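anyone seen this seq b4? input:
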Amino acid sequence: MIFDRKVTKATPGPFRTRVITDGVIPSLHVDYKGTRIKQYHKEGRALRTETTINNTRDFYIGRRIHNLPALRQIGFQANRRLLEVPTIRHDCLLAEEAFQKINRPIQVGQQRAAALRFADPRVQALWSALVLFPFLPAGFSNRDLRQHWSQLLGLSTEQVSAGCMSYNLRRLRLHGMIERIPDRHRYRLTPSGLRSALFFTRTYARILRPGLAHVLPAVPAINSSLRRCFHRLEQEVQSWTQQTQLAA
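predicted toks r here
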C-alpha cells in the first residue's frame, strides 16, 4: 500500500512493518524488498521520514543517474502515503467526536439542548426534512419545516404544534446544524449540518435498515451472502465453544 505495488505469493520479499518502542525513541520501519522507510521524531520535535532505495530494480528502474528523478518521485509518493496514515487515523477520531457530540445533549453557554439520537425515527424524519431546504436563498421557517416533518411522521400539520417545532429548531441550532438568518425568523443549514443530515439519513435508510434485515434471525430468511456469512460465523463460534468445552 505504501509503495503502490502489487504483491503476490511469488513476489520476493521481505515485506514487513515494525514499530520499535522498547528502550528507544519510538520509530516506524517499513520494508519493501530492498527499500526501507524509517519514521521517527527528530530530537523529540519534528517527525522525520527517511526513505532509502537500495535496489532500483525493485521498481523496474535502471541504475543510471538519469533515472534519479523517477526514483525521487517513487520515494516522495511513498512518503506522502505513509504520512496520510496518521492523518486518516486522526480524522477518524475527529469524526467520532462529531458523531458523539450530535448524539449527546449539548450545552452552549447557558443554553442546553437534548441529543439528536441517530436511531430516533423522529430525528431521522427531522434530518430528512432538512435536506429539502439547502438551496433556498431565503432559508426556511418554522412552518416550512413543520409541514414536511409532520408528513414524514404520518401526521397532519395540525397535530404538530409550533412550540414542538421551535423545540426541534433550537436543538438543531445549538448542535450547529442550522443557523438563524439575522433579523429574521428563518433558518438555513450550515455546511456541516447539510453534510451530516445527508450522511445520517442515507446511512440509516440504505445501509443500517436493509443490512439488519439480512442478518437478524428474527427477520424472514433472505438468501444473501451477508446473511450466509453471519450464519457461518455463528456456526464457527458454536463449534469452537463446544471444542473448548465452554458454556455458550
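The chain has a mean pLDDT of 83. The domain at 111-207 is CATH 1.10.10.10 (Arc Repressor Mutant, subunit A). kinda curious what u guys think
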